[in-house]
């Protein structure tokens, strides 16, 4: 499944483009701009599985670094600071990774 099966290609391009500058990533604004906030829990879970590149059932710190590339190949890598901030926001149980429920909560709070 491709990200464009769930989200509009135009929204993805606009949202990724808005955070093209280093240190500019804001997950709350990004999830809203990309249209994820308006999606059903099932669609949010589909996006989670697309971002979970190694199919572990979690999005680990290494996968978070490439979260924008998960939406489109033109996306930039997040900086270490941005990656750690996103992990801290999403990792509610402190296990160092983001599970499907944590991802859904992260999207919902944006």
UniProtKB/TrEMBL annotation:
Ca(2+) 1 binds at residues 52, 54, 56, 58, 63. PROSITE patterns: EF_HAND_1, EF_HAND_2. Gene3D superfamilies: EF-hand. Ca(2+) 2 binds at residues 91, 93, 95, 97, 102. Keywords: Calcium, Metal-binding, Repeat. The keyword Repeat applies. CDD domains: EFh_parvalbumin_alpha. GO terms for cellular component: cytoplasm. Residues 39-74, 78-110 form the EF-hand domain. In muscle, parvalbumin is thought to be involved in relaxation after contraction. It binds two calcium ions. Belongs to the parvalbumin family. PANTHER family: PARVALBUMIN ALPHA. This is Parvalbumin. It comes from Manacus vitellinus (golden-collared manakin). The lineage of its organism: Eukaryota, Metazoa, Chordata, Craniata, Vertebrata.
